[in-house]
Amino acid sequence: MRYGIYYAYWEKQWGVDYLPYIGRAARLGFDILEISCASLAEMPAACQKTLRAAADDAGIALTGGYGPRAIENIASADPAVVANCFDFWSKTFPVLQALGVTQVGGGLYSYWPVDYAKPVDKPADLERSVAGMRRLAALAEDHGVTLCMEVLNRHEGYLLNTAAEGRAYVEAVGEPNVKVMLDTYHMNFEEDSFEEAIRTAGPSLGHVHVGECNRRPPRAEGRMPWAAIGQTLRDIGYGGTVVMEPFVLTGGQVGRDIRVWRDLSDGADAEKLDEEARGSLAFLKTMFEGERKR
Ligand SMILES: [Mn+2]
Predict the structure, then answer these.
(1) Complete domains list, the chain, with CATH
(2) Closest CA to 157 of 179, 195, 178, 183
(3) Partner of 139 at 20 to 30 A CA spacing, among 16, 40, 261, 287?
């Protein structure tokens, strides 16, 4: 498994300059920096080059995350909204390719954050989403990108809430570059068993997000069954990417969208945040790599 961190641990906005976070992630021992696809299409070619070179130099692989906006909802009944989705990705995939990003995860099959003031038609949205995802997979394939469908808790999504729904969706799409993505934070709401959910995703599992129930970085003081989660990932032969996605800071669009209404960093300064991330990575590796001898 390769380990990463989402840049928004340190940030309060979605589309930012990711350059400073490459060196930071590398210094802390990560293999991967996950960035947001928001505003990537507007990134000047020179900046793409600089970012790619910095990542290559630091030995950092970049992965992408995204929550499509309501006006880019692939499951929408409005053809203009679906067209926006394809317009967004047709501009974003070439940038991802230039940056060397081969994997994007998130609620790509719908939109985020969901507006529950509107009526929900799950069966119709699912059908449109699957059909749209087949087309999007073909476009992604042209740029060497795998799309990972993040299973979300009920408050943030309604199409895929469990690993079983994720796997059924991915099988319905039936494209090799469309995979299931699990996030321990969301699993904690919906799954009866972390182990069973991971086994259900099985070979279709393409990406994993890790975080505590309150979105702190994985830690010994938390209450996720990290050893069991790690053991099950090893059992299914998962050799993919594991990215921690901690949100501990209030403020900005990130704090608002994630609903961080209290300081979960305990007043940490930049140095302390780094220390926490470094410690979390060491803890996670201990839990996930398990006994080497067998
Ligand atoms: Mn996540």
Answers:
(1) 2-289 (3.20.20.150)
(2) 183
(3) 16
